[in-house]
Amino acid sequence: PPRRGPLQQRAELAASSRAFPRMKSEQVPRTGWIRAIRDALGISQSQLAARAGISRATVQQMERAEGRRRITLSSLDRLSHAMGCQVAFAIVPKGGSLDHVRRTQALARAEQILKEKRQAASKEELRPRELERRKDRLAAKLLRGSKRKLWRM
Question: I need a surface site. Which of 2, 32, 52, 63 has the fewest CB within 10 A?
Fold first, then answer.
């Protein structure tokens, strides 16, 4: 198959990530997804353990691990299947699109570069409007140029 460029890759990923809702961190159940779903289904830890082929203490440990964000995908998968569910795992861009993430990074990198240049060059003071214009031009250049330069910090 022909090699896809970054623009096509971002478009394909954007299309597939639309299936996942954007959640705020406060929308994640305080007790974790396993316990919240288990409770909603009316399944006890013992019942879930029997369905997953593990001990009740292991279910308890897994629930605690999920609450600390230390659970493995394998454990999540095992418990979700035992509850008749499936794990839907995705990395979705903040701000809605990968292009937005790249633009945010380009602006942050441009600001950093301009700050370093001003420090090196006798602390030249620019009017805020001129500084914004320079930052926007440099961000556009970074977006067109090397991916490595864009992400260098």
Answer: 2
Convert the pLDDT of each residue in 79-97 to its tens digit.
Answer: 999 999 999 888 888 877 8
Task: Quote the tokens at residue 104.
Answer: 């945010």
Q: Are 143 and 102 in contact (CB under 8 A)?
A: yes
Tokens 């909603």 sit at which residue?
Answer: 40
Structure tokens given for 116? 């370093």
Cα 137–Cα 139–Cα 143 angle in degrees, nearest 5 = 115
Q: Which of 35, 18, 20, 12 is nearest to 88 (CA)?
A: 20
Query: If you search the block for the tokens 């997953």, which residue do you land on?
Result: 52
The CA distance from 107 to 114, in Å, is 10
CA–CA–CA angle 74, 79, 84 (5° rounding): 120
Burial class for 150, CB neighbours closer than 10 Å (0-12, 13-18, 19+): middle
For 25, the token pair is 């961190």
pTM: 0.66
The whole-angstrom separation of Cα 98 and Cα 75 is 29
Distances (CA, A) of 36 to 8, 10, 17: 38, 34, 24
Query: What is the C-alpha to C-alpha distance for residues 12 and 5, in angstroms, rounded to an integer?
Result: 11
